[in-house]
Amino acid sequence: MLAKRLIPCLDVADGRVKKGINFVHLTDVGDPVAIAAAYQQQGADELVFLDISATNEQRQTMVDLVEQVSAQVFMPLTIGGGISSVADMQRLLKAGADKIAINSAAVANPKLIQAGAEKFGNQCIVVAIDVAWDDRRHDYRVYTHGGQQATDLTALTWAQRAVQLGAGELLVTSMDRDGTKTGFDLRLYQQLGAVVSVPIIASGGAGTLVDFVKVFDQSPVDGALAASVFHYGELTIAQVKQALKVKGVVVR
Predict the structure, then answer these.
(1) Average pLDDT, the chain
(2) Which of 39, 47, 115 is nearest to 83 (CA)?
(3) How many CB atoms lie within 10 A of CB 197?
(4) What's this protein's family per the entry (predicted)?
């Protein structure tokens, strides 16, 4: 059995780590380089670094900041935000990224997934999917542009398509749970796990040790991503890993 991964997420805007609730009401958390180094010391398995304003501001992800973070961090680093071409991917991988996360650009141009996978390998391409429950459709709807634009895609359909095109991993965020600390959306990840075979990272809703235990025990996800509980010191990586070990979950 592959060990489950704990993955802090750094949402960055204007060169600072931010955190909000339901993708809005962002507050400043601190310097991304210092925070990344702290997670290195805590024993995080991976780090996700998202430039959350790049797409809406129509600019590229800050390569210089990626270089600074990668100089401090020696665990796998996934970078996303404002990536719209294979050339963008190459710049970030050269700057120190291990994996590239694409979201809005992948929805607008699905062939970008295939092009990235063919150039760098499936293991380098993470398709990030932001979803919210749609009561009218009784399904999860996909959103782009930092959760600001609704699409006609459903989570399951888009996840399957992304994997067919070459995505090696899916980072799926429940916008309904984001920043709420009410627990991961287990139904969402159970449904996704039934239709795709690539690793799934659960994101949105982590608030307690029990939440981490439940998402690994009751859904097929390979990793759990969190921000608020780690950024504000409410939980440490070590505490979560110990709780998972006690429940028989294999961790690194």
Answers:
(1) 90
(2) 115
(3) 8
(4) Belongs to the HisA/HisF family.
Question: How far apart are the C-alpha atoms of 225 and 211, rounded to whole Å?
Answer: 11
Look at the block and give the residue holding tokens 């590229």. Answer: 60
Question: Quick one: tokens of 193?
Answer: 């796990």
Residue 175 near residue 132, CB atoms below 8 Å: yes
Is residue 64 annotated as a catalytic residue, yes or no? Answer: no
Looking at the predicted structure, is the pLDDT value of residue 25 above 70?
no
- Alpha carbon distance, N-terminus to C-terminus of the chain: 11
Instruction: Please report which helix (H) or strand (E) contains residue 50, including its range.
Output: strand 47-51
**Is 11 considered catalytic here?**
yes
With a pLDDT cut of 90, the percent of the chain lying above it is 70
Q: Residues near 216 by Cβ (< 8 Å), separated by ≥ 6?
A: 4, 224, 244, 249
Can you read off the two tokens belonging to residue 107? 């929805």
- Please check whether residue 196 is in contact with residue 188, taking contact to mean a CB–CB distance below 8 angstroms: no
